[in-house]
Specification:
The chain has 179 residues and is mainly alpha-helical. 60% of the residues lie in helices and 2% in strands. The chain contains seven helices and two strands. Strands 1-2 form a two-stranded antiparallel ribbon. It is elongated and about 75 Å long.
């Protein structure tokens, strides 16, 4: 009954799949993974969205409970499709705005970004207030992503090789006991 919910990142009609690394180049792959982990942790319904009640629970667990109106305003500030819930893309907008200094100090979104333990200030939106600097930064970040991907692939190869060596050593040890 019904189709699977998916990840909530695509657009209606399947025209374009949302790519966090492509659109949010100001964040490292690690930061994006941390943000996705946080999003999935509080997406209780596993429908690819954080609704009002899930946001309420999230803010309570982060130690910054909000009023019903405060929660609605938090969603409204980044709710681009006006569906009164947060997609993963809209969730990422919170951290983009936080890194760019666009959130009011006393806002719920500022508290969410600050308390989430995802530090966007060190690598986030380096000078994005200046459009041209942000363009240059995006080019630099693209090459940084490639470097991170290569490093991750090298790490996986190294781990696979170590596992292979451990298995070979175990088999050799096992054969000594069989004799």
């Amino acid at each position: 009954p019904g189709s699977p919910a998916g990840d909530g990142g695509g657009s209606p009609g399947g025209r374009r799949v949302f790519s966090p690394a492509g659109e949010f180049r100001e964040f490292s792959r690690r930061q994006l993974r941390d943000m996705e982990r946080l999003f999935r942790q509080y997406d209780e319904g596993k429908d690819g969205f954080i609704d009002l009640m899930e946001l309420k629970l999230m803010m309570e667990k982060l130690g910054a409970p909000q009023t019903h109106l405060g929660l609605k305003n938090m969603i409204k500030e980044v709710d681009e499709d006006l569906d009164s819930k947060l997609s993963f893309r809209e969730f990422l907008l919170i951290f983009r705005k936080a890194a760019a200094g666009e959130l009011q100090e006393d806002s719920g979104l500022h508290a969410l970004a600050r308390l989430s333990e995802i530090d966007v200030s060190t690598e986030g939106v380096k000078g994005a207030k200046n459009f041209f600097e942000a363009k240059v930064q995006a080019i630099h970040d693209a090459s940084r992503f490639e470097e991170e991907i290569k490093a991750e692939q090298e790490e996986k190869k190294k781990q696979a090789e170590e596992l292979k060596q451990r298995k070979a050593a175990f088999k050799e040890l096992q054969s000594t006991f069989k004799q």
